[in-house]
Amino acid sequence: MQFLDQAKIYLASGTGGDGAVSFRREKYVEFGGPDGGDGGKGGDIIFECIEGLNTLIDFRYSQHFKAPRGIHGSGRNRTGAGGNDLVVKVPVGTQILADDDERTLIVDMVRPGQRAILLKGGDGGKGNDHYKSSTNRAPRQFQPGFPGKELWVWLRLKLLADAGLLGQPNAGKSTFLNACSNAAAKVGNYPFTTLKPQLGVVSHKGVEIVVADIPGLIAGAAEGVGIGDRFLGHIERCRVLLHLVDASSPSPTKVYETVREELEAYGGGLSEKPEIIALTKTDLVSPQGLAAKKRALEAATGKPVLTISAATSAGMEAALDSLIELAGRKPAGHVQAAAKSWSPL
After folding, report:
1. Which residues belong to the annotated binding site for Mg(2+)?
2. N or C: which end of the chain has fewer CB within 10 A?
3. Which residues are annotated as a binding site for GTP?
4. 59 with 9: CB under 8 angstroms?
5. Domains detected in the chain
6. Strand-strand pairing, 115-119 and 94-98
C-alpha cells in the first residue's frame, strides 16, 4: 500500500429540502386548507477515526465529498426525509486543517472511534401550512430549503508511536527497526533509502511499543528541505526519541548537532522530548576510535551515549531497555510483582 500523509479535499453538506405547497382534498371537505409539509434536513459531513488505517492514499483518488440533500415536503403535512450523513473515515492521528495561510487546526483525530461533525446540513424549508392566517386561507407561499455549507480542508497524518527514530540519512535507523521488530523496511548502504515513515511493533521483556522510523534529516529540514518538515511531524506525538548517529562518520558530534538544530527550528516541543543518543554501526569502527568518538559526543551533549550495532545485535538490549523506561512502559515482571504484593488483609 502506498503511503500518503497529506491530502486536500472538498466537503459539502447537504441542502435542506423545500417546503411543499399543498391543500387538503377530501370528499365532503370543500375548503380543506393548506397541508404542505416541511422539507427534510440535509446530511452532515462527519469524520470518524478508524483503526487499521495508516495512510491517506484513498484521498488521492476521491477528493470531493458531498452529503445528500433533504427530501422535499409533501401533502398531508408530511415532512421530507432527512439526507443521510456522509461519514469520512480517516486514520488515527489525522489532523484536519483549514485551507488558509496559517493552516488553522480545526480538529485533531487521535482516538479510535472518535467522531467529529465538521459541516452541518441545511435545515428544511417550511411548507405552506405555516403561512395560513385569518386573512390568507389559501397561501401558496413556501420556504426553500437552507443551503448546506462547503469547505476545502487539508488532511495531515501524524503517526502515533511510543518512540521515534531520527538521525541523518544512512544512520542505520531502518536496520535498527528491522532488527528489533517484524518491520520489513528497505535497507541500503546509501542515503535516503527510506522515503516514507515506517512503523514497527517492538516486543521486549513482555512489553510492546510502537516505533516510528522517519526518513533521514538534513540541514534545512525544518524549512522543508527534503520535505523534512513533513517527516518531523510524524514524531511530534512520540514519547521518546532515539537519536541514532553513525559512528563511522568523520565527526559524529557535528552530525548530532545538525539534527538537533533542525528539531529546535521546527518547534512543536520536539527539542524538549526525552532523548536517547546512540552511536550505530559500531562494528565498522575500531574499539579505540569508537571510545574516542563516544567520549567526544558525551562531552558535547552532557548525556550518556549508547553504542549499538544492529548487524551484530551488540548493545541492542540496553537501547530497548532505555526506550521502554522512557516511554513509560513497565516490563511484565514489574506488573506481576505489583499484583502479587497486594493483599486485602
Report:
1. 174, 194
2. C
3. 192-196, 213-216, 280-283, 309-311
4. yes
5. 1-157 (2.70.210.12), 163-336 (3.40.50.300)
6. unpaired
